[in-house]
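Inverse folding, one chain.
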C-alpha cells in the first residue's frame, strides 16, 4: 500500500509540475495571457505540497527519484498535448529513468 501511495503521489506531482510549466509556456511563448501563467504558477506551487506527502523521509531521495518520473512524464505530456512522437532513444531513456526511480525509492534498505 505504501508503494501504491507513493506512485500516485509521483503521478500527481508530475501532473502539477509538468502541467504548471506547460501553462506558463503557453501563457508566455504562445501568447495566451497572464491567466495561463497564473494558473501555471499555482500548479507549480501545488507540486511542492504533493511532494511533501511522500512516505519516504528523505527530501533528497524523493526529489532524485522524482527526476526520473519528470523525464518520463514530460515525454508523455508531449505525446498527449503537443503531438510529440518519441523515438526509440526517448523511450529507452525514459525506461532507464523509471528503473532508476524504482531502485532509488523501492529497493530494500537495511534498517
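Residues assigned per position:
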Amino acid at each position: 500500500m505504501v508503494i501504491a501511495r507513493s506512485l500516485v503521489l509521483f503521478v500527481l506531482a508530475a501532473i502539477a509540475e509538468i502541467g504548471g510549466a506547460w501553462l506558463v509556456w503557453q501563457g508566455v511563448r504562445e501568447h495566451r495571457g497572464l491567466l495561463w501563467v497564473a494558473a501555471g504558477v499555482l500548479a507549480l506551487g501545488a507540486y511542492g505540497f504533493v511532494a511533501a506527502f511522500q512516505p519516504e523521509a528523505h527530501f533528497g531521495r524523493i526529489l532524485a527519484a522524482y527526476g526520473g518520473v519528470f523525464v518520463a512524464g514530460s515525454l508523455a505530456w508531449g505525446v498527449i498535448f503537443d503531438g510529440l512522437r518519441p523515438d526509440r532513444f526517448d523511450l529507452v531513456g525514459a525506461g532507464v529513468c523509471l528503473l532508476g526511480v524504482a531502485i532509488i525509492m523501492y529497493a530494500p534498505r537495511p534498517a
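The longest helix spans residues 2-29. The CA atoms of residues 27 and 36 lie 5 Å apart.
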